[in-house]
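Hi R.,

Here's the chain you asked about this morning:
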Amino acid sequence: MIRFNAKTIYKVHDMVRLTVIVAITFLSNLAFLHNDHAAAHQWDVPVPYLPERLQLARTGSCPNCELPDTDLSYKVLAHAELNGANLRRANFMRTELKYAKLIGADLRFANFTWADLYQANFTNANLSGALLAESRNLSEAIFCRTVMPDGAVSNLNC
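And the predicted structure, written out as tokens:
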């Protein structure tokens, strides 16, 4: 015959209560995830533009994507295709953009500090207010009908 004392009953009761709390928390997080909000983990806050970020990471291509205010610093985006993308105020600090295609992209107020722009194609792109001064290989980038940070149109290496 098994004997239970009062302490054992309280311990079982506490374990049941803890299990119920964990289950409710888990289910409420699942409900949050299925409300059309993408999250990196069920306990995180929603990640803006997560599908576009995942597409860019998987394929290296995201034409016409909406990625404003996105931090793409320290990424390798060599040969990336970002034609027509909305990259307003994006951070490309120290990003490798060699041979990237940014044709017709909205890059207003983007930060290209120390980014490698070797043969990056900015044809018809808008770089108004962008930080380009300390980028690398700027003279090797392609600017055709490109609105530069000062508002002037450039045709360098066109």
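The mean pLDDT is 84.

Let me know if you need anything else.
M.
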